[in-house]
Every structure is written in C-alpha cells, then in structure tokens.
Amino acid sequence: MDIEQAQRDVRTTFLGGFVGQTVSGTLWLASAALATWGSARASILVLVVGGMFIFPLTLLGLRLLGRPAGLPNGHPMNALGLQAALVLPLCLPVVGAAALHRLEWFFPAMMVILGAHYLPFVFLYGMKMFAALSVILVASGVALGYRASPDGWSAGGWLTGILLLAFALLGRALVRRELSRPAGMISPEFA
C-alpha cells in the first residue's frame, strides 16, 4: 500500500476528522461553560477525564453513521494514529504544573499541547488543514497565556471548542468533495 492510499483510507474512514473533532469540540465547549458558569474543578475534570473518551466516542459516532469504526488491523497508519493520540495525555503533567502555578493558564496550556497533538495529523490524514489548526491553536494558546487573567480564564476553552467544530465541518466538506470526484483524481488540498 502506498502512502497516498493509506492517507486516503484515514481521511475517508474518519471523515476528515469530522466525528472526532465534533466530540472534542463539544467537550471543550462543555468545559468552557463550566469554567464560565460553574466551577474551575468541574471544568478541568470534564476536559481531562472526558478527553479519555474522545476516541471511543469517535468510534461509536462512526458506527452510528454507518461507517467502519476505525482502520483495519495491520493498516500502516494505525501506529502513527496511536502515537499522535498519546501526545496529549503524556503532556498533561505540564498542563497541571502550569495550572497549579496560575489557574488561568489551564486552557492556554491545553491549547498548545492540543496544537502539537494535531501536527502529525497533517501526514496521517494527508490534509494541510491540520497544519493550520495546529498553528492557530498553538499561537492562540501562547497569546492567551500571556494575556491570561482570572476573570476571562475560560476564553481559551470557548475559542478551542469553536475552532474544533469549524475544522470538523471543513474536514467533512473536503472529504465529501474528494469522494465526489472521479476515482484517481486527487484534489489539490491533499497533494
């Protein structure tokens, strides 16, 4: 199997990241809502603990849409997908340290590691949109971290939730357009 075919498998199986990013974006918005109108502890717990269920909920969502729930065993992109998935939980101690120092750094720190998490998706999916998402998340996280104040500490949660949902729709639209093209014709955004 060549790389382009393996990337196409990932794009079409996961709908350009649509289901996973929808699950993740919804989780970020729920966490931001709790940060705004609830408690900081509940907000953090929702994002951190809920984050452990993003992939299983993504697979469930794919099944509910009548899609295969993941790539077949032995697919060459499975290992990279696992490695990309582990970036975020392995970086959580850094987020914890930042938030213990200043609570308002929680969302910005999460944004930076989420951006790092999405960078390998550029190759995994063969979609340049993930580079844009990565850069936007990291730059926004750094900017919000520098401007962080206890009064507006949920801004990063709201921004990230909205970005994830917007990029979920973009990924789905790009894959739909690709699937509507004649076989063998690859669109420029994947070249």
Structure annotation, total helices: 9
C-alpha termini separation: 17 Å
Largest sheet: none
β-strand number:
0
Helicity, as a percent range: over 70%
Average pLDDT number: 92
Shape: elongated
Subunit arrangement of the protein: single chain
**What is the strand content?**
under 5%
Q: Provide the low-confidence segments as ranges.
A: none
Tell me the series of helices and strands, N- to C-terminal: HHHHHHHHH
Structural class: mainly alpha
As a whole number of angstroms, the C-alpha radius of gyration is: 17 Å
Number of domains: 1
Give structural notes.
By secondary structure, the protein is an all-alpha fold. The protein has one domain (3-190). Helix content is 74%, strand content 0%. The chain is built from nine helices and no strands. Helix 6 runs antiparallel to helix 8 (129-147). The mean pLDDT is 92.
Helix-strand blueprint:
Layout: H1 3-13, H2 18-37, H3 40-51, H4 54-64, H5 78-101, H6 106-118, H7 121-125, H8 129-147, H9 155-180
Helix pairs in contact: 2-3, 2-4, 2-9, 5-6, 6-8, 8-9
